[in-house]
């Protein structure tokens, strides 16, 4: 790992540690710098503020930069693959960190803006390859509601992981894809 990459990893690890210890509101950039053994200038060259730094740290821990999955040949299997990847990302996150971040969003407009711009858009883009391939195969028309698909799929995973505590097993993902997401895509495609 190159020196710059090691420095970035140290900064992101320090950010997550402090987030868990003191919460978003009380994180200070000087404390991140001290813990990461980096200068504040180094941090600010890469991240313009605390919100961007925290969101990057959480995304990195969750493995948001997943590689493109191969085309399974049909929309259903493509959606199942996407939902499995989202499940792995969601269950790989520290629930306390994520819930603390969501709580902080309610009173920090800057943080809310960064989270919405980066994390929510990432969730929406996660479905793009599956939709693009389905459109190319003729399974869906080009005007399907991608945002609604991402919102419903993400919300149901989030609810299971953090609200109901019910299992996020393959049976649930199959039921979600077959009973909710595919009908949603096809109903919205017909009326579009």
TrEMBL record:
Please give the DNA-binding region boundaries.
28-47
One Pfam entry for this protein is TetR_N
Residues covered by the HTH tetR-type domain: 5-65
Query: What keywords were assigned to this record?
Result: DNA-binding, Transcription, Transcription regulation
Q: Does the keyword DNA-binding apply?
A: yes
The UniProt entry's coiled-coil ranges are none
Q: InterPro entries, from UniProt?
A: Homeodomain-like_sf, HTH-type_TetR-like_transc_reg, HTH_TetR, Tet_transcr_reg_TetR-rel_C_sf, TetR_C
Asked if the Swiss-Prot or TrEMBL record annotates the protein with the keyword Metal-binding, the reply is no
Its recorded name reads Regulatory protein, TetR family
Its lineage reads:
Bacteria, Bacillati, Actinomycetota, Actinomycetes, Micromonosporales
């Amino acid at each position: 790992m190159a020196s710059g990459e090691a420095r970035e990893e140290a900064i992101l690890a320090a950010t997550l540690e402090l987030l868990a210890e003191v919460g978003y509101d009380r994180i200070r950039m000087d404390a991140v710098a001290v813990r990461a053994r980096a200068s504040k200038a180094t941090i600010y060259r890469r991240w313009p503020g605390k919100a961007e730094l925290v969101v990057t740290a959480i995304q990195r821990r969750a493995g948001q930069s997943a590689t493109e999955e191969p085309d399974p040949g049909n929309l259903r299997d493509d959606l199942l693959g996407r939902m499995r990847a989202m499940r792995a990302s969601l269950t790989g996150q520290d629930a306390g960190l994520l819930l603390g971040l969501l709580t902080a969003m309610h009173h920090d407009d800057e943080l809310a803006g960064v989270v919405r711009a980066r994390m929510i858009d990432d969730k929406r883009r996660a479905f793009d390859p599956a939709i693009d391939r389905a459109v190319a195969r003729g399974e869906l028309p080009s005007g399907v509601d991608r945002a609604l698909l991402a919102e419903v799929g993400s919300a149901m995973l989030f609810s299971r992981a953090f609200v109901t505590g019910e299992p996020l097993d393959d049976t649930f993902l199959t039921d979600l894809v077959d009973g909710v997401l595919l009908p949603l895509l096809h109903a919205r495609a017909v009326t579009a």
